[in-house]
Here is the input.
Amino acid sequence: MTENPSPLGRFERILLATDGSEHSAGAIAIAGEMAKKCGAKLYIVSIALYSPGTNSLEPTLGIEAERLAMNNVEAARDRLGYGNCETRVLQNTDPARAIIEAAEKLRADVIVMGRRGRRGLVRWKLGHATERVVGMAPCPVLVAPRSARMWRNKILLATDGSRYSDTAAAIAGNIAALCALPLTAISSTLSSHSPERRQEAQEAIERVRQALSEKGIQVDSWLAEGRPEQTIIKAAEKAGADLIVMGSRGRRGLVRWKLGHATERVVGMAPCPVLVAPRSARMWRNKILLATDGSRYSDTAAAIAGNIAALCALPLTAISSTLSSHSPERRQEAQEAIERVRQALSEKGIQVDSWLAEGRPEQTIIKAAEKAGADLIVMGSHGRTGLDKVFMGSVSERVLNQTGCPVLIARS
Here is the structure.
C-alpha cells in the first residue's frame, strides 16, 4: 500500500490482533464497532507461531498452528459480520514482531489487541507481547480488557505536557469530536514536587483544555495529587470514562525499551480500554547522524542515510565506536569502516564529517547526535555480533528508546 497514515484519531485502517482466547473478546468487539463507526478497513490477524527447528522435525506442528490461527481470524470475522474486512494468518517466531511488521506494511492507523494472551497472567502486569507492541508500535495501540465495549460515555485524557501527551491530546480530541463525547483531562503531581513543577502541570492541562474547547469539545480538567497510575484510574472511575488516552511515555523519558512506568500500570489495571499514543516525530532539517560498525546492516544504513542526505540537502556525521577493551586490530577496523563510509558519501557530493569515539555504542551515538545537532539517526538493526535476540540488536534498541530524535533502523 502506498497511502499515508490517516490524521491522528481518524481511523481508516484498523488492525485487530487476536489469538482466539477469551482475552481477545473485548478487542474484537471494540475493533468491530470502531470499524463500523469510522467506515474503516478492518484487518484481522492471528499468529501461527513458527519454529524452524521444531517445524522441520515435526511438520504437522506448523500445519496445526496455521489451522488454529485461521480458525481465530475466521471466528472473529464471522462474529463481527463486517463487510470491509480482510483476514490474514502471520507466520513468525515472535507475535509482537509479527503484529508490528503487519501494522507497518498495512499502514494501520491503530492496533487493537487484548491485554493478555492465551498464557494468561495472575498479576496486574501486561502480557509480554502486548507490552512490546505498545512500546514499539509505529501507531497508536488500543489495549482492551476482555469485557470491554465501545466507549459511549466519556473519554479521559492523561497529560503531563510531554511530546507523547501532545500526540495523545490530538488523538483524544479527534475521537471525542467523532463520537460526540465529553472529555476529562487530568494531570498529576506528587507531594514532593516543587511549586514550579506544580505550576507546569497546571499550565499543561490548561493548554489542553483550551485547545480542545476551541474545537467545540466539552472539556473539564482536573489536577490531582498522587501516583500517576493511581490518579488516572481513579479519575476514570469518578468521571465514568470508558476510554483512557495517554502517551506511551512521560516527562522522564525512557531508560529501556519498555513502556513508561505509569503507562504500563494503567494499561494493566484500567477497567476500560486504554489507547496509547507514540510520540509524533517531525521532519529532520538540520543534520543526519549515521552510526556504523562495518557490518552488512551498517552498509545498508549508510546507503539509506546517503540518499536521505542528498534528497534533503543535509550534512551528515558518521560515527563508529570502540571500547577500551578492544584490540588494536579491532580499533583499526573501526577506523577503516568509518573512512570507507566518509569517502563513499563524499564522492556523491554529500558534506560528511566522521568521528571515532570510545565508549558504549548507544551512549556515544546519543551524545554524538546531541553534539552534532542531528535530528535524525540512521543505523543498522543489528551490529557485528549479529542477532542477539529476536527483535533487534541491543544497541539499536537502546538508541531507539533513549534518544530525543527520530531513529531510522535499517535491515540488511
